[in-house]
Amino acid sequence: LGWLVIDVIILFYTLDNSAIQTRNVLRGERLTLEKGETAHPLALAEKQPQHQEEHVDPETEEALNNLLAGTSFDVNGPGSNGEGVNIDPSKDAEMKEMFKQNQFNLMASNLISVNRTLPDYRSSKCKSNTDSINVKELPSVSIIIVFHNEAWTTLLRGLYSIIYRSPRNLLEEIILIDDYSDRAHLKKPLDLFVQRLPVPVHIVHLPERSGLIRARLAGSDIAKGKVLLFLDAHIEVTEGWLPPLITRVHEDRKRVVAPIIDVISDDTFEYVTASDTTWGGFNWHLNFRWYTVPEREMSRRNYDRASPIRTPTIAGGLFAVDKQFFYDIGTYDKGMQVWGGENLEISFRVWMCGGSLEIHPCSRVGHVFRKQTPYTFPGGTAKVIHHNAARTAEVWMDEYKQFFYSMVPAAKQVDAGDVSPRLKLRETLQCKTFRWYLENIYPEAPVPATYLSIGEISNPATKLCFDTMGKKTGESAGVSPCHGIGGNQAWSLTKEGQIRSDETCISAFRGFSTSTTIRLEKCTVTPSEKHIFSYDEEKKHIIHVQSGKCIAVKANVLELEDCEPLNSQMSWNVANYQA
Ligand code: LR7
Ligand code: MN
Q: Which atom of ligand 1 is nearest to the CA of 339?
């Protein structure tokens, strides 16, 4: 009874002091920090140094001390509990200037403790599922973080969150790959600082700008853990994030598992949770995109919101993968540069070559989403991105690469380089076709698995073509002089009868009047009657099936009219049409 009383007293004391529950990084146990108390890494390291410190040059020591003097370790300071901070208007100019360094509010980040608290966002089901995981049975993890000119406080906040919120016995090591940054704080002071962390941290400073793809490979090559876990350098992990990811990989080594990626505001650094019914897809531009998980997948999961979502693609930055499996399926495409494209490439490859991709809703990691990229793209931004995407298309997309090239004609002009080693890999692994992927993994894709045409839809009499005019939805669907390049004039008539340009569909809209107009609308997964058209190859008519009327060009818009009498404004050539 005595012990019970003491326990209860301690419990009340703890609650009363709103003490912060966090992981004891030294023993893999719970550590209680009292209100206002900080867990300074240097203090922790004193208890159990991981590395024998060698001779430290005084200059580095001083530089680190200066950095640390400007770093907040106050758990209850501004931004605690995931809150955002607002900068005083008097500092507006300085704030904007600092923003440019990383394309996020660096001043806000610097105000917030690198040690800040975050709420536990998990559902009770997620919590109890995770609590029942025996972490001692899980394999060890190497966390790999690559960065180019990352800010000091965002990088440290990520490291702290990992160290405090991960069971110590799961963490084999943290590997930092410095992709040829030119900021002093990422050099010797960082080397010294991480030595004092209570988890082994290895840093590699790459001798040239390698891009995130090759930088990650530099990390995976030296990783000792059974599981690799890649993270961006401006993230914060939340309570219980790690065991669910590792459990799924451990149960099936061919699973690649991502957390839910929450939003850390680039403006205030507020932690904002993202939807747990979102998965990854892609569009004709070969951009990764978030979409609502379709009913099909919700029902496969028996509507259990704690169960993993089988996602067609992953965002790319945050995922766990069995190391051996990562190598078995060909790591990354080393021909890709700087940034972009690798996320869809690995997504297609994992599914097509026998693995699977999941988002685990019981694991949440925040990421600072930016509106603009902060760094240079050696070789030119568009060129690099097109180059990477074209490699993905050439190797994995078979005939469906036409959708990409029609939508992004500039990508045809860039040199994709030699893709033969990757094609050989696909051959060796006996990977399935892209059509299989679309039909079985991603039938909701904006790229239709079965289609009758891809290319322009032109009216020979006027030489006008269907054109989105850059709009996604609109009162009236437009036409413009055919330019033969694609882009806004890239359309596909699908087997189901949608006429779509990426995610935009031609729709027959019946308003209050008797006339029916043609509009642009967002395509739906199951097309409704207003989106269903057929093509009469002989008469060259495009017919709205439900009304039996024909699409005609009038002035600079499309309209629905009676198909008789025949007139040249209802006559359409549909490029690459195959019934
Ligand atoms: O040349 C470079 N070298 C690098 O080391 C360029 C970048 N990097 C580092 C960079 O410092 C960062 O740590 O690589 C990491 C990712 O770069 P970001 O943060 O600029 O990328 P992002 O968050 O804008 O983009 C997403 O898509 C990328 C495509 O290449 C990568 O896959 C990113 O990892 C990925 N981020 C996420 O998935 C987080 C969620 C964002 C979304 C959607
Ligand atoms: Mn990022």
A: 30
